[in-house]
Amino acid sequence: MRDPSFHRSLTLFRTFLREQDDPHTAYELLARDAADQIERHVRLDGRIVLDVGGGRGYFTREFRRRGAHGYLFEPDPAELAPDRRAGTVVADGYLLPLADGAADVCFSSNVLEHVRDPATFLSELIRVTRPGGLIYVSFTNWLSPWGGHEWAPWHYLGAERARARYERRTGRAAKHRLGENLFAIGVGPTLRHVRERGDVEIVSARSRYWPVFPGAVTRVPVLREFATWNLLLLLRRCP
């Protein structure tokens, strides 16, 4: 799908709405889309690609399908697919069991909002990427309409109120709790942190799903916290 385009955004949004009922279709589509985004900057065939926090491995499988040497690092064994293969490692993204510069591409999709210390997490992704290599990081920022995850958009009225409403209406416990496994990360602070670093340069900072001028919305303070929805950062490791 052409990116950006209304067709792509609408297709992804419709699939996202069915994610709870059909996660396989949703994540396979998202994996193909993410791989397409990476291949606009580097061909995956023959590259060493790390998927950090990739859960059931949809992204890793897509990278391998395109000829990459894909490796999945996931801290929670319960999130892994039952048929996980060689190249899957139970490991924390804060401390990856890899040498400096081991990867050509380091990939992390929708993980940063779930870590307590995003700066340390980013530092580890950068450390294991070779000089000149690419780091792909996307996350759902807190003030996005989807920032509350399963209890969005009611998080605008308060996290505890939103979580309680979700549990009352669905009759099941919410997966996420603010301050424990979900954190109020912002677009502006994240961009400032990355720009202040001396070990990476920004290749692209854009809304992952926005159909028109996806980079423009991230440059407008305040508005970007609501309108970006999901921030995509493509970083190049400096020599």
What does this molecule look like?
- The structure is a single chain.
- The protein has helices at 6-17, 23-39, 58-65, 118-127, 159-170, 187-196, 223-227; strands at residues 48-52, 69-74, 88-90, 103-109, 129-139, 200-207, 231-237.
- The protein has 239 residues and is an alpha/beta fold.
- 31% of the residues lie in helices and 20% in strands.
- Helix 2 crosses helix 3 (58-65).
- The protein is globular and about 50 Å long.
Provide the gyration radius in Å: 17 Å
Strand content: 15-25%
Strand order of the largest sheet: 3-2-1-4-5-7-6
Kindly name the structural category: alpha/beta
The largest pleated sheet is described as: 7 strands, mixed
The geometry reads as globular
- Give the termini distance in whole angstroms: 33 Å
Mean pLDDT: 94
Helix fraction bin: 25-40%
Protein name: SAM-dependent methyltransferase
GO molecular function, one term: S-adenosylmethionine-dependent methyltransferase activity
Domain Methyltransferase type: 50-137
Keywords: Methyltransferase, Transferase
Summarize the structure.
The protein is an alpha/beta fold and 239 residues long. The protein has helices spanning 6-17, 23-39, 58-65, 118-127, 159-170, 187-196, 223-227; strands spanning 48-52, 69-74, 88-90, 103-109, 129-139, 200-207, 231-237.
Chain-wise SSE layout:
Layout: H1 6-17, H2 23-39, E1 48-52, H3 58-65, E2 69-74, E3 88-90, E4 103-109, H4 118-127, E5 129-139, H5 159-170, H6 187-196, E6 200-207, H7 223-227, E7 231-237
Parallel strand pairs: 1-2, 1-4, 2-3, 4-5
Antiparallel strand pairs: 5-7, 6-7
Helix pairs in contact: 2-3
